[in-house]
Amino acid sequence: MHLQNLFPVAIGMSKNSNHSKIENSLIKECLKIKNKIKKGGNNWDADLYNTFGTFDLKESEKFKILNKWVFEKVNQYANAIGYVNKNLEYYESWFNYSIKNDYQEKHEHYPCDISAVYYLSVPENSGNIKFYTHEPKGVKETFIKENFYTWKNYFVKPESGLLLMFKSNLTHGVSKNKSNEPRISLAYNYKIL
């Protein structure tokens, strides 16, 4: 029997080999911004500190090199999933500063086309990102760990320097930070023109 995989969901992953060189200075920059800029994401259920709508990462010269690396990786991802010879345009970015018991509810990044998350600082037990199936309800539930055809969600355990890329309409959320240390992630949105 042949199985034809239809409508695949592709999550891109890339590890930044230069992360250790930029980590400390960018953490300091995030803390500096956090002390100056009010919290964003006003219509979010989660109460974590973020700069969504209050500060865009492109406004800080300190993020310039990382932003360029992220753009290059997202462009590679866009080409791999079929957006060959299309223009990728930056739309927005922000950072999330998650302390103990913070989480991020289930959401998507519509109306953008491609989203990315870069993990700047990830203490142990500080929360996984969870992606949810786009398959509608009504199909009999079954789950076999070894059979990805049965999966309805997928967890990624983040690590410092990891970049995740995905189509912006992919529903996702972040589990509770159970660590006593903050997790800092950077979020990026792009549009295909």
What is the strand content?
Answer: 25-35%
Estimated structural class: alpha+beta
Q: Approximately how much helix is present in the residues?
A: 10-25%
And the CATH topology?
A: Jelly Rolls
Name the shape in a single word.
globular
Number of domains: 1
Name the CATH class: Mainly Beta
In a few lines, what is going on in this structure?
This protein is α+β, with helices and mostly antiparallel strands. It has helices at 19-36, 64-80; strands at 12-15, 49-50, 88-98, 104-107, 114-121, 129-132, 153-156, 162-167, 172-174, 183-192.
Notes on the protein architecture:
This protein is α+β, with helices and mostly antiparallel strands and 193 residues long. The protein has one domain: q2cbj1_9rhob like domain (Jelly Rolls), CATH 2.60.120. The chain is built from two helices and ten strands; from the N terminus they run βαβαββββββββ. A six-stranded antiparallel sheet has the order 1-8-5-10-3-2. A four-stranded antiparallel sheet has the order 4-9-6-7, with no helix packed on it. The radius of gyration is 17 Å and the shape is globular. 26% of the residues are buried. The mean pLDDT is 94.
